[in-house]
Amino acid sequence: xxxxxxxxxxxxxxxxxxxxxxxxxxxxxxxxxxxxxxxxxxxxxxxxxxxxxxxxxxxxxxxxxxxxxxxxxxxxxxxxxxxxxxxxxxxxxxxxxxxxxxxxxxxxxxxxxxxxxxxxxxxxxxxxxxxxxxxxxxxxxxxxxxxxxxxxxxxxxxxxxxxxxxxxxxxxxxxxxxxxxxxxxxxxxxxxxxxxxxxxxxxxxxxxxxxxxxxxxxxxxxxxxxxxxxxxxxxxxxxxxxxxxxxxxxxxxxxxxxxxxxxxxxxxxxxxxxxxxxxxxxxxxxxxxxxxxxxxxxxxxxxxxxxxxxxxxxxxxxxxxxxxxxxxxxxxxxxxxxxxxxxxxxxxxxxxxxxxxxxxxxxxxxxxxxxxxxxxxxxxxxxxxxxxxxxxxxxxxxxxxxxxxxxxxxxxxxxxxxx
Length: 419
Known about the structure:
The structure is a single chain. About 80% of the residues lie in helices and about 0% in strands. By secondary structure, it is mostly helical. The radius of gyration is 22 Å and the shape is globular. The relative contact order is 0.15. The model has no long low-confidence stretch (mean pLDDT about 85).
């Protein structure tokens, strides 16, 4: 009994640190949904250009997924966390000179560097959490960590809207009347709003890195054996490849929807619906994601995961369709409700994609992470359609994403292995 209590105390500090990391990187990631309309105004961008915020962020995840796994295997969890924190802190700090110059590509570089650090942390955190305690408690620890991450994602839009958006919007018609000097002053003041939050985030990340360096962390030894197989070997598992596609479309649809909610709300030109108030629909989306994940613990015990995925895909498709054919608050509410139906999609497609991989599981999980690039590709595609055909038509792209998820639920998840 004493030994068990000592082990629990030994793992408590590392668990708190890792869960704090999950809170902050989910918070930082979901600030982007408000950062998009803010930078659109501060840097005078089109919808397509402003959506490149997500391309920079999720592109870094895509590029860093495999190198991060390799680095952690070579250097260990502690060094992985420290490296991820310091890289992310560097990216957060770069927002200061980016705001000073108001050069949009500089903001994208800052986002890319910060996201690269978060990618290293994310690849480190999940396996580390599973090893901080008894194996039978790994799932509950991961669920708790995911819930804390969801809290960060839910808080982010509220916090960002207060920091970056005005209580009363400045109409474009007013901005158009500014003299060149007035316009330059206004845009510089807009850009400067990002400086304090990201400097604070820099300080938090550096402080956590110092804690990780100096605190006594338990030494975690990975299981021997089960080495990763060559990447190309995964090509014989068709259901896993379809699963990578499912991850691509799931992430792409979710990031695309929340990226354009504020812009979509402004398109209705409802006088009392400011950008700050419109951000509440993103908060509602993320809050419903949190609720859905909590309900999912029960739902996935009662129903087959592929059936739940089919239901969620059809429901999300229906909500986006209703949003397209309706207007105003009802349309925005439909988009927010999509969060409820996509909340448990990730664990379903991951588990179905890894089914029967056996000794190829490590390779499969690494390849699966590449599907996150959907968050980098879908928003710019929606932005281009918004600029050329209208913002309503841009939401056709998430509809296509949910059709693919339905295909994966019905057929794509079935295990078929090429000889």
